[in-house]
Write a structure and sequence with these properties.
Blueprint: E1 6-7, H1 13-21, E2 25-28, H2 38-49, E3 56-62, H3 64-67, E4 72-73, E5 78-80, E6 98-103, H4 105-116, E7 118-120, E8 138-146, E9 156-161, H5 163-168, H6 171-174, E10 177-179, H7 180-185, H8 189-198, H9 205-219, E11 225-229, H10 234-245, H11 253-264, H12 270-282, H13 292-302, H14 317-325, H15 327-343, H16 357-367, H17 380-395, H18 404-418, H19 425-434, H20 443-450, H21 457-466, E12 476-480, H22 489-494, H23 499-509, E13 515-519, H24 520-526, H25 531-538, H26 542-551, H27 564-583, H28 609-613
Parallel strand pairs: 2-6, 3-11, 5-7
Antiparallel strand pairs: 1-11, 2-4, 3-6, 8-9, 8-10, 12-13
């Protein structure tokens, strides 16, 4: 560290948070956003209660002249995973000196949220696009009992609770949950006893001891240790920031790129521009989950930067200036590309690789296409070629994995050389095959696809590709041809199937041969009706009925569960032939199930708080 850095006298948590309240302690724009999970915040407060060190903090004393050269943000107090994830931008008064945090932002923000604010995260298994599923939670401490046994080794029972949870609790239990922010707001220990008395805890020695311990940890224990850098050379401070924050694996290369872009862009606030674009892309259609990494990589590709790797040597002032200059056009192209992916029927639940956005955006950028391209009659054939390539690249595993940078450079070159008037699918697939990423499939890959299940991310892409009559601009559901409810264990037992036969039928129930794409309203009307009965009701004439079977490559539909096994075997053979023909592979496909079922479903939410608490308590 620099000789100009000094070890400041230790201070308290309360004093540090008061400096945040006054706007004296702020965040340089090179800092990344807040990323800690509730379990990490709880782990930090457990350490504080036990008197454990919480690490040192690195700050930067910024003189008024230097303040003019940088952008600064405030600390988050009320974090909402849905719509309040970004730090507020600050306007520093002329002539004001401030202190910026270079290392320790995550810990200080966690303290600020726990002691002054709220943390709103999504309810378990709730829809992510509904703001009501992100209730406000405050941090509470159970002042009577210790934490239940847990693998993280937590001793104190801190929890983020909603007002509804407290209201629903037994009154005798709820009075032992003490709001942590009230301890911070109480400057005098005697006033804390009054609050404890109001909660009916005045005569409970254990509760008083726990509250006293927390109050002292916040207000009197000198547990916050700052090292202060006073050098005003922005480049030097940036170097210190990168060295400190890239020592581990927490700060990704895209974080470094964002940090440097923020420091070097002249015409716009890079942080707001990039985060705003990520939010805009992810609100397209049914919603996506594009990351900052994908957007920044897209920027390098679309800006024409030669080496698009996330390497510090590529983050030059020249490259950042190029990105800054072209950002408006890059943003527009990415929005059109996200719209096209939505038109192809994809969303966060079905898009298996966000990187596919990049070559689509580059093609849009190369041709100067706008949102009108998505509706253009003249562009319909070109869009269909693009749709076909996109879906097939998502179906074949490994395309968007290793060697991504090399693949993206090849695709960019193919589009530059051959994409002036249409998507150059022949040249693109030739280059992909040369890199070992051919979209033509083998017999083994056909079997893999046939074993895809309901809920697997690739399943939608496969069905959309196999049945191009489906208008994916409308909302479609992946539907069971033979309803799930009619293949339940109880129904199978009633039908006379033994355990082994029932297990076999249930293993087939959710696999691709029993799936189809139906528009939302049509799927709702189908409900749990046996397929033969539903189809004859929905398609009243023989021609309409046969056309439905032909469109979905369906054999004779089963009337009851006893006919399901034969239906499944016939449909599996038919789909195998169709997969081989459409995706350009072999047609040698068996009618049985080959190999173990491959689970490609999206990761589920954590099943319990125990699993959250088992993660590392905190790491900057």
């Amino acid at each position: 560290m620099s000789l100009l850095m000094g070890y400041l006298p230790p201070t308290t948590i309360a004093d540090a948070l008061r400096r945040i309240q006054k706007g004296e302690l702020i965040l340089p724009a090179i800092q990344r956003e807040y990323v800690w999970r509730p379990s990490q915040v709880i782990g930090l407060f457990d350490s504080i209660m036990r008197g454990y060190p919480i690490g040192s903090f690195l700050s930067w004393k910024v003189n008024p002249e230097t303040v003019k050269k940088f952008r600064f943000y405030g600390f988050l107090k009320d974090y909402n995973q849905f719509n309040a994830r970004h730090n507020p931008m600050l306007d520093i008064a002329p002539g004001q000196a401030v202190t910026g945090m270079l290392d320790g932002q995550q810990r200080l923000t966690s303290l600020n949220i726990g002691l002054r604010g709220t943390y709103a995260y999504k309810n378990n298994r709730a829809w992510s696009n509904n703001p009501e599923n992100y209730p406000l939670r405050r941090l509470y401490l159970n002042v009577l009992g210790e934490a239940e046994q847990n693998e993280a080794g937590l001793l104190y029972d801190f929890r983020f609770l909603t007002d509804g949870q407290l209201a629903a609790a037994d009154p005798e239990e709820s009075r032992y949950w003490f709001a942590v922010h009230r301890v911070y707001e109480t400057d005098d220990l005697g006033d804390l006893w009054d609050l404890a008395g109001d909660a009916g805890l005045a005569n409970d020695r254990s509760a008083r001891n726990t509250l006293s311990q927390l109050w002292k940890a916040i207000h009197s224990a000198p547990g916050v240790h700052f090292y202060e850098e006073t050098e005003q050379d922005v480049e030097r401070v940036l170097d210190i920031f990168i060295r400190v924050n890239s020592a581990g694996t927490v700060l990704s290369y895209s974080d470094l790129l964002l940090s440097i872009a923020t420091a070097q862009w002249k015409d716009r606030d890079a942080r707001y521009a990039i985060h705003g674009l990520v939010d805009a892309l992810n609100s397209t259609g049914q919603g996506f989950g594009f990351t900052q990494d994908v957007v920044l990589k897209s920027g390098l590709v679309l800006a024409g930067v030669g080496d698009i790797g996330f390497k510090v040597k590529n983050f030059t002032a020249e490259n950042m200036a190029t990105l800054d200059r072209n950002w408006d056009g890059i943003s527009d192209s990415l929005k059109v590309a996200a719209g096209l992916l939505s038109d192809f029927g994809l969303s966060n639940a079905t898009l298996t690789a966000g990187s596919v956005l990049i070559p689509i955006a580059y093609y849009v950028h190369r041709r100067g296409l706008t949102q009108k391209y998505r509706e253009s009659v003249a562009g319909s054939a070109d869009r269909e070629v693009l749709r076909s390539w996109t879906l097939r690249s998502l179906i074949v595993q490994g395309v968007w994995g290793s060697g991504l940078d090399s693949l993206l450079r090849d695709l960019r070159k193919a589009i530059d050389d051959h994409g002036a008037s249409g998507f150059p699918i022949v040249e693109i697939e030739r280059r992909m095959a040369a890199r070992g990423k051919s979209l033509a499939i083998t017999a083994e890959q056909v079997e893999d696809i046939l074993n895809l299940s309901y809920g697997a991310a690739r399943t939608f892409a496969v069905l959309a590709m196999l049945f191009p009559h489906v208008n994916t601009r409308n909302i479609h559901h992946v539907d069971h041809v033979f309803p799930q409810a009619l293949l339940s264990r109880s129904k199978l037992k009633q039908a006379g199937f033994g355990r082994d036969a029932a297990d076999d039928l249930q293993s087939k129930r959710d696999q691709l041969p029993n799936l189809q794409l139906l528009e939302g309203l049509e799927n709702i009307s189908k409900s749990d009706t046996p397929p033969a009965m539903w189809a004859s009701t929905s398609y009243k004439t023989p021609d309409a009925y046969e056309a439905y079977l032909d469109r979905y490559d369906l054999p004779r539909l089963p009337s009851d569960v006893t006919e399901f096994a034969d239906f499944f075997a016939e449909r599996r053979s038919a789909l195998g032939r169709r997969i081989a023909a459409v995706l350009g592979g072999t047609s040698t496909v068996t009618s049985g199930i080959v190999g173990a079922h491959i689970d490609t479903s999206e990761p589920t939410l954590r099943a319990s708080i125990e699993e959250e608490l088992a993660e590392s308590a905190y790491a900057e």
